[in-house]
Each structure stands twice: as structure tokens, then as C-alpha cells.
Amino acid sequence: MLIFHQADMFGRVWRMFCDVDGDDLRQHWKFPFGTEQSPELSEEWDKMSCKDRLNQIQDRLSLEERSMLEALLKQMGGTSLDKMGLLNALRWWVLGSHNPTGLNDISLHTRLRSGNGTLHRRIFEHAVSSGNLSYSFNSAVSKVVDTGEYVTVFSKNGQSWKTKSVIATVPLNVLADIQFSPALPTAKVEASRQGQVNLCNKLHVDLDGPDYKSWTSFASPGRGFVCALGDHLTPANNSHLIAFGPDPSSPGGIPLSDIDQVKKGILHLLPEGKRAEVNFHRIVAHDWVNDEFAKGTWCYMAPEFTQKYVAALQKPHGNILFASGDYSEGWRGWIDGAVQAGMEAARTVFQLQRKNLKENGEKNVNGINSTKL
């Protein structure tokens, strides 16, 4: 578990890292939704990597503090610190209400007991119950053609759908795999080709007994994993932990397919005197990096990406709207950001349809009146 000394260290180093203005960003970035509150400072911070910021404060850190901070950041961004944009880390700080434990208080204590899978199923079932949903599974999209009056979506298996508007929720790292006609603007194309940088490993593991129910540990460089968090007890009274490790191709990363390395990496995050007693009951993971429909995990932006591309990614392209959690405001990279982006896009489509119906209605009325004259 995270004892007082370690918890205090966690808060101290995280606050030190994010205190770039001497006031914990309480005035320069009051609200997490949008960076226009201090545009000049945001532009300056966006140019920096997390490595740059760490170098600025390294003389104020002990070796132990530096190790914890490095592990904390790698757990957030899933890659080496030089590839992680500082602005993205500062956003997480502001999301936590300018408090060192604020984000953990939100993310670790507002959980869905039934899991995200059940949430997705309930949303789908609700949509089906409306009687207004048509759907097709196992139909990977290959091309989207906007003629102005209609948009046609083509799948790799030969299906196609014609509609007035399309909302694309495609992850940023997959967007470049889809052909658009007319072609996407240059900024969207560049952003989709560069992508977001979080290619981390995320692992679920059940260990024998309840001892690690409240366990939290950080390690840098670690042995494939930099963080392990006790999540709950299983029905068999075993400890369920979630572990995070950097991009397998980055320094300190390991492939999930190497089970021996995976076990060694997890054991390295447990008390040295108890490692010989540990029994693994279950190890579960999904290779999001090599999943063709994800090509990465939750979104984390590189230096100079946010200010250059996010606004362009959010803009519609003709009758095609974009609503990915990868470039939403506020909770970017979280399910909350995906929900927000989807709601905003749906509202825009609704308003456009209502406007078109009104205009067509007026034309019909005018047409009837002119016929009568």
C-alpha cells in the first residue's frame, strides 16, 4: 500500500512538476476545458516535453523522488518522457482541480462496478429500443465519400450506407487508414499520420490472497511495468491488480506476449521479501497497439501537437463531423471526453437537420402559394 511517506512524496513531486507558474495554474489555467485562457503560456508549454520540465526541476529532486515522478508520468503517457507533451500533463493536473491527488480521487473512486463493457451494452440496447437504429458489425470502413447532398460510407466487405451526415468516432491513430473524398484538410492529414504517442501496456492480474487489495507501487525504470494498483478482491478473495508499462519499443518496455518477462515485471513492483510467495491466478491483457482499430491506448499528445492540430481535428469536413475522445476538450483520452464529443456532434447534426427541414418546409409552402396565385 502507499504509506504516508510515499503518498506525501507523490503529491509533492507531482505538484512541483505542474507548478510552472508559481501558483499551481490556479489563475493561468482555471478550467480544464480549453487552453485559450492563457494562449501565450499554453503555446510555450506545448513546445516543451515532460523531459524538458523534469530537467528544469531535477536539482530539487532526490533520486527516489525523481524515480517516482518518472514512473507517474510514464503511467500517464505510456512512452519515454521526451515524446510526451508537457501541456497534456498540465491538463491532467487541472482536471484534478489543481490538487495533487485530485485526479486519482476522481478516477479511482468514480468507477463502474459492472465495467465499461456493460455500459457499452446498455447504451447499445437503449439505442436499439428506440426503433431508429440500423447497425452492422464486422464491417470495417474503408472509404467515406461526401458529394454535398449525401455522404456514402463504404466498408471493406462491400457494404455501403448513404446518409445526410456522418459522425466519425475513429481513434486518431486509425484515421489515416480511411480514405476520404474530398480529401481531408492538410492539418487533419498531418495529425492523423503523426498520431498520439501513448502505446503503453495495460495488464490485469489476479494474485493469490487479499494482501494486495490496496497496494500501490511505482518504479522507474522498472522491469517492463512502472506502476501497479490494487483494484479489488475477486469472488475467490484474491487480489486484482492493474499494471501499466511503457511502449514495448521504448526503453524499459516489454512485449505482452512474453509471459515470463511479464511475471518478472509484476514481481518487481511487489515487496522484495514476499515475491517468492506470490502465485499468479490470472493474467489478462489486450494488445491495443497492434489492434488495427485502436493502434494505441488512451490519448496522450506529443510536444507541439495540441496547439497545432487539436482545433483542426475537431472541425467538420463538409457533412462529416469528428467526435473522438482523442481530441475532445477537457477529458481528452478518457471515456468522458468521448461522450462529450459525441453529444456535441449529435447536437450539431440535429440542428442541421432541423434547419434543413424548416427550409424545405418554407420552400414547399412558397411553392403551394405560388401555384395558387
From TrEMBL:
Reaction equation(s) it catalyzes: a secondary aliphatic amine + O2 + H2O = a primary amine + an aldehyde + H2O2
SUPFAM superfamilies noted in UniProt: FAD/NAD(P)-binding domain (SSF51905)
Family: Belongs to the flavin monoamine oxidase family.
GO MF terms, alphabetically ordered: monoamine oxidase activity
EC top class named in words: oxidoreductase
Domain Amine oxidase stretches: 29-349
Origin: domain of life: Eukaryota
The protein, known as: monoamine oxidase
UniProt xrefs under Gene3D superfamilies: 3.90.660.10, FAD/NAD(P)-binding domain
InterPro entries attached to this UniProt entry: Amino_oxidase, FAD/NAD-bd_sf, Flavin_MAO
Record-listed E.C. numbers: 1.4.3.4
